[in-house]
Structures are given as structure tokens and as C-alpha cells.
Amino acid sequence: MQIDTPANPISLETGSTSVRQWLAVIAVAVSAFAFVTAEFLPVGLLPQIAQDLGVSTGVAGLMVTTPGVMAAIFAPTLIVSAGRMDRRYVFLLLTAVLLIANIVCAVSTSMPVMLIGRALLGAALGGFWTLATAAAPRLVQAKDAARATATILTGVTCATVIGVPLGTFIASFASWRLSFAATAGLVAVALVAQALLVPSLPSASALRIADFKTLLRRPHTRMSMLMVALVFGAHFSTYTYIAPLLEQDFSLSTITLLLFGFGLIGFFSNALMSMAVSNHLKKSVAVMVLLLLGALSSMLLLEHSTIGETAGMLLWGIAFGALPLCFSVWIQRGTADLPEAGSAMFVSIIQVAIAAGSAVGGAIVDRAGVHADFTLGLGLAVLGLVTLQRLAAMERPATNASFKQTCDASLD
Q: Of the candidates 51, 97, 341, 379, which lies 20 to 30 Å from 27 by C-alpha distance?
């Protein structure tokens, strides 16, 4: 059982990172952009796809649930089952599967066929995210490792800012099928770029299944994963069905602009939070969860107010633009001794939250309406905030014990 490590001869050199090495990083970043665009493309197209395929909005939400389930399964298992396979070939294989998935979605004429395509996407997605951040330090010199990781994650932010709204825009003047076809074209570009630019990335060290068990025995890790699941569940149980809510008061073109604004303000939120999160992690998480609560509340209380809903979307963008970064740093610190296992668990729990949140949200939308769904999201966000408070309480005794040991040592 093998995983990637930063211990790559390229990274141990002391020279400057070459242009070709940066191009390899950009190739992976383009793939990240394509994966995230494809994953969340249905969010802005849900009503059109549901109508065209003859299903309810809640059933159409399975397009978000299905890849989440598959990604949750494949995130921890792929890194174990890939063995000593060169990670370059794993990247190429996963991107090829993504290309096929988008083609299947574009030509699908029924919901079962659409879900087959979405399942393929999820399988590729789980593996990609487990490997992508581990590969970043191996593509450049050691001093540029953090920059390379940030560049790859920028692909995610750009997908939120450009990819998903662009898919909605294409559907506004053509069809949702063309949106999937355009995404397939983007994936083809990423595949060619990877084939030409990404170097060999042989596997180096072993990951044991026991490492996952070790993390799960720790109360702090379990509570941290629960917090992530609750907050991501709050987001995706509601965000998945944002189009049906907004279409009551906005045209499709205006919804596209709102989604663009959501992503754009999230981009700046992510950039600004990167400068504060290291020194103020707990406060950063708390503030962003509170902003998410405020956004969901405004979407409920100010329903049918175009100004109120617009403000809510922008507030929501600020919150969710920074939350993935905050949680990523939180999990990295909590699993510093077993970073690869922690990363795989983090990816899995996010995908479980996406799948469960969109599935439960869809059932509620079909039976009780979007308003009830947003009430669920509010409740989950509140529980996430309570879990954060409990985590902070768990850390205080350890901090006090450390302080007491320091004092005792100074008295000896």
C-alpha cells in the first residue's frame, strides 16, 4: 500500500523551479478547475435538467449526491489500491474518466444514464483530490512547495468564480447539454496538458489501514470530522437547491450573475483568510460559521426581497470562500503525525456531507419546499458551531496541563 510523499529528488535540489515544472503545476491546477466545475455544474442547471429529464427537483439533486458518495468511497481506497503505480499515470487515468463522465452526462436522455455519468465523475474526483495536494511539493523545488499547493487550490476557487456561473450562462442561451459538452472540452485540454507536462511521480512510502484506525480513536479527530460534516452539510443541503429558490425572484441571467458574485467574493475571502488563519484558527472558523448562519437566515427571513437575497448570497460567498481553507488547516494541525491519512479522511467526510446534505435536502424540497430545506441548513450550521465550542473546551484542559507542567519545571 503506497502513497505519495514530498520526498522527490526534484524537491531536494536547491536551484530555482524551472518554467516546465511550473507548467506541470498549472496542468494539475487546470485539472482541479475542471473537476470542481464538473462536480457543481448541475447546481445552476437543476430546474432545466429536471424538466428535460422528467424528474422532480429533489430527484435531480441526486446529480450532486451520487458523485459525493462515490468520491467518499474512492478518496481513501484509491490511495491504498494504487500500490506502486506511477502517480502521473493515475492522474491521467482519473482525468480520462472525468472526460468520459462529462460526455455521458451531455448525451444522457434519462436520469439513470445521467447518474452513471455522475458516478464516474465521483470515482475520479475522490482519487484526484487525495493525490493532488500530495503531488504539489514533488513538482517543484522544496522552497516553492507551498506556492505550488496554493496554485493548484486556486483552480478550485476559479471554478467557483468562473466555471459554474459560465456553465449556467451557456445554458441560458443554448442548453444544459452544451454546458456539459463545454466542460468535457476543458477536461480534454487538461488531459493533454498533463500528458505533456506532468513528470513521472513514482510512489515512495506506505500508508497503513491502521493509520486510519489510529486517527479515529482520537476524540479530537472524531469531533473535528463531525464539525466539518455538519458545516459542509449545512452548505450543500441548501446550496444545491439555490436555483429553485432564486428563480422565484430572478431571471436565469441574473442567477448567473449572483453565482458569479458568490464565487468572486469567495475568491477574495479565501485570499484574505489565508493571511489570518494560521495565527487565529479557532476565531476564523467561528466567524465564518457565524457568517454562514447569517447568510442562511437572510435567505429565509428576506425571501422574495431581491436586495436581501443578493446580500445573503454575497455573505454566503464570504463564508464558504474561506471555510474549506479554515477546515483544511484545522485537520492538518490535528493530524500532523499522520497527514496523508488525515487528508484522505478529510476528503471523504466532505464528500459524505455533500452526498447526505444534497440527498436529504432534495427529499425535503420535494415534500416540504425550499423554505424547510433552508431551515434544516440553519440547524446543521448551529450544531457545527456547538461542536466547535466543544472542541475548544477539549483543548483548554490540555493547554492548562501544559502550562502547569511548565510552571512545575520552572520551580524545580
A: 341
